[in-house]
């Protein structure tokens, strides 16, 4: 009983805070099923958070009429997952070399990599547009490959700039540090090469770090907005966030905006809920602790 | 950054037992492994950044029939006479100065709340983290709707106080626009740092708490003498990530206020974007970006100095 | 070990190649980035979010592709809010499509910047001379773009409400004067029925501000820039008349006639009776008429001294300078200039048809029709936004100044700052010569 009372304060705090964090999102989800008039009408009461009134899927059907949502979702899934897979490989390889191997210049490289963390992407986005168009592109023409120039309007221009990430390198680096180096030495004595150590020893022990980097790479990839607007022209290649701006022409239908926002948010929320425990534990067990 | 540099310092020298040949192979392999990431960072961050900085010494325009010319420091002299730039600096500093302690502190409170061994903590962790998973563009749109004069927040305020508190147009008033954005930003981002704190809390050995309990130390003391010192490294990490994130404030401003009203919410990155894209003054925007880069670097170094490990 | 290093390098190359391949496959069939590949031309439009208008574009393309076998036009639609950014990004990479639409006031800037190529539409079904002047995009005497429709600004009100408060319903021949307008607002405010009797969409953003409010500035006798050579804004944008406008504009807020920031949907608020008079575009005319019937009053802009004014020029079609198949692009442009398409556009978007011939076929817009007044507004009152490459800059500065004024900035200072910034921009661009 006393322990219950002692915890009462904590429980109340937790519940109130939970309401603060959840209610705006509940409002979004609930409103997505209501006609515009009712969204505004319900603002004055608790109905704003409750699925009551004339609920329907009209907003959702409206969204599909206005935006090729299925295609956008497919693109985003493709772009985000390739970015995640490549990001995990590329950054962990670099972190492995930086944290477990000895070579001239590694300190310099690590410092330089970390320094790139402080630049917001927006500040160099436009020169980057020009620059990616000077890059060579290998593409399939009929049955042979040919080289052309310019990455505009491709999947890769939405993927490759975001594969290498200073934060991911740093994160893996920290985690790898916590794996005993004696393992490497033992493996080398057994005749294993560095790549084998990376693949067979270090990576299998780094599940939590991989999970964390995967999630932290996935979120911005899924949410990217400014960049695809500048470099992708074909509707077939656009990701989900771009769809948001389809709703700001002429009269804004708030119900449809809520529906579209819910549609692109809820799957991610569901994914997170499913992996919540391992995600939290993974960060907890990685190098972020210092 | 301290954590990161501390990490550098921990690179232990590997015992010199192997042959020169083996070490050469090691170096080559390491280079091969680091190359993909390094090349990608050079191509997609360093080069465009260098381009940006080079542009700041020219008169380049977004749209122009004439090629850019070198103009020396013209853009920078213009910058120090630009009143909006100083407002942007001030607002950015204001935002960071409030958000860093607020978000870090609230995150720590949340972390302590969900670190308790009671039923349902996983549920609460998930709920507190939900906004982090939601895109900032979506969050900004949603809150624009909530903050309206006829929006949800004012209706709730009025209902909760039985009509005694008259809401206002939060984003339309120079006095409240920035605080409103701060509140929303903390709401969105705090869950992430809660997890980081939580991670730190879980690395504090339980024996320390047990020892404190044996001594009969009250909770307050337990926090001050066990928890707080145990979180030193985490503190640095939280401080630095929030600072960098806060100084780069852009999306919220772009979606919610466009810098207004009366420049009360314009920020450095927002001004650079507005000048560079909408107003087509690429070179001037590049100059703003360059100054911004130097400032962030300076802030990071100061923080590193202040939080340096004294032992 | 050497073997392993090599294998690692091999793996990296393989990963890179695989990505390139995936990406290559995805775009291999498109290859549309040079504006045209052979006789397949790409066309960009800002209409992704407006299916009614987009359907007309699709129809013209379908008809054109079916009418001949040489050229194919392929559509790519963009959301409006970021269309200009997409175009600018593509232009910086020299990847513009052959055909694109452009907002009227931007024609000069894009033409000057070398994005657009002059076009020749002689010999098409509808001659240029038949079009509303504001639907033709010229720069330095050359034709760069043309549009199928224009929109008109107008006040909407309920006749019953105006009659109740003894307010004269103005006509095209005798619009409200400033004094009449102010007294009407005072009466409406005094009635206590309306929190804010006047609704001018002050919650909007972007081009709405210069589009909606610079005509009022011009009606006061001010302007955005001295149109004589377009060399300076000082003395014009911050001149006496302009400051008068700004002071009046601010007073609308201080007197409680107009909200500092209007609600989420101004037209809905008007229809719900929350506001008495709405300053809006002709695109809502049909919707209002449907809801209010004969009670709807379509009211000409107020004459603030220099005659009633509205903004002219809406979206228009153009050809890019980098187009690799200009003959094909011209063929499409000429083909599209048929009266039936002018009619389709106007019907789909509720806008004013670009020609008289088309207006005759659109319900309500024919002479004597209930929306014909809007055609008259467009003919009599339309002022095009300054035809200078500096316009996009002027637009952003005016927008900021107007928003600051509403928020309480000193009118003279706000306009003075904008004028100074515009002059600086003009000077640093050598007055957009070249």
From TrEMBL, chain A:
One family name in Pfam for this protein: BPD_transp_1
Membrane topology per record: Multi-pass membrane protein
Keywords: Cell membrane, Membrane, Transmembrane, Transmembrane helix, Transport
Domain (ABC transmembrane type-1): residue spans on this chain: 73-275
GO BP annotations listed: transmembrane transport
Alphabetical list of SUPFAM superfamilies matching this protein: MetI-like (SSF161098)
GO cellular component, one term: plasma membrane
Signal peptide: none
Subcellular location field: Cell membrane
Transmembrane annotation, as ranges: 12-33, 72-96, 108-132, 155-172, 201-222, 257-275
Manganese is among the record's keywords: no
UniProt keyword Transit peptide present: no
Family stated for the protein in its record: Belongs to the binding-protein-dependent transport system permease family.
Protein name: L-arabinose transport system permease protein AraQ
Organism listed in the record: Streptomyces jeddahensis
From TrEMBL, chain B:
UniProtKB keywords: Cell membrane, Membrane, Transmembrane, Transmembrane helix, Transport
Transmembrane segment boundaries: 28-55, 93-114, 126-146, 177-199, 237-255, 283-302
UniProt domain ABC transmembrane type-1: residue ranges: 89-303
InterPro entries tied to this protein: ABC_transporter_permease, MetI-like, MetI-like_sf
Statement: the UniProt record of this protein carries the keyword Cell membrane: yes
CDD domains (alphabetical): TM_PBP2
GO cellular component: plasma membrane
A Pfam match: BPD_transp_1
Keyword Transmembrane in annotation: yes
Subcellular location: Cell membrane
Signal peptide from the UniProt entry: none
GO aspect biological process, one term: transmembrane transport
UniProt topology in membrane: Multi-pass membrane protein
Coiled coil regions, renumbered to chain: none
Family statement: Belongs to the binding-protein-dependent transport system permease family.
Protein name: Lactose transport system permease protein LacF
Gene from which the chain derives: lacF_8
TrEMBL record, chain C:
Keywords carried by this UniProt record: Signal, Transport
GO function term, MF aspect, one: maltose binding
A Pfam match: SBP_bac_8
GO cellular component: ATP-binding cassette (ABC) transporter complex, substrate-binding subunit-containing
InterPro entries named in the record: SBP
Entry annotated with the keyword Zinc: no
Alphabetical list of Gene3D superfamilies matching this protein: Periplasmic binding protein-like II
Range of residues in the leader sequence: 1-23
GO biological process: maltodextrin transmembrane transport; maltose transport
Family classification: Belongs to the bacterial solute-binding protein 1 family.
Record protein name field: Maltodextrin-binding protein MdxE
Lineage: Bacteria, Bacillati, Actinomycetota, Actinomycetes, Kitasatosporales
Gene encoding the protein: mdxE_3
